[in-house]
Design brief:
This protein has 73 residues and is mainly alpha-helical. Helix content is 42%, strand content 0%. It has two helices and no strands. The protein is elongated, with a radius of gyration of 27 Å.
């Protein structure tokens, strides 16, 4: 008997996909929620800094902002 392709691509994909189990849904733990909140706060801080112009197209070598005096006087 000659090779005969599947008559429907949906049927072929279903036959391939039935061998793979569904991805389990894992609830977020309290530790992961607190980490996610921390990243959200960092994102908000970066957004505020860019809106104030502290990094909008300017290169800053260190964490000191322009106008600060460093070193012994």
């Amino acid at each position: 008997m000659a090779h005969r392709p599947y008559p429907s691509i949906d049927r072929a994909l279903h036959q391939i996909g039935r061998h793979y189990p569904d991805v389990p849904v894992i609830p977020m733990s309290p530790a992961m929620k607190s980490a996610a909140d921390g990243f959200q706060r960092i994102r908000e801080g970066l957004r505020q800094a860019t809106q104030q112009g502290l990094g909008a197209g300017t290169y800053v070598l260190s964490t000191r902002r322009p106008g600060t005096v460093s070193g012994p006087s």
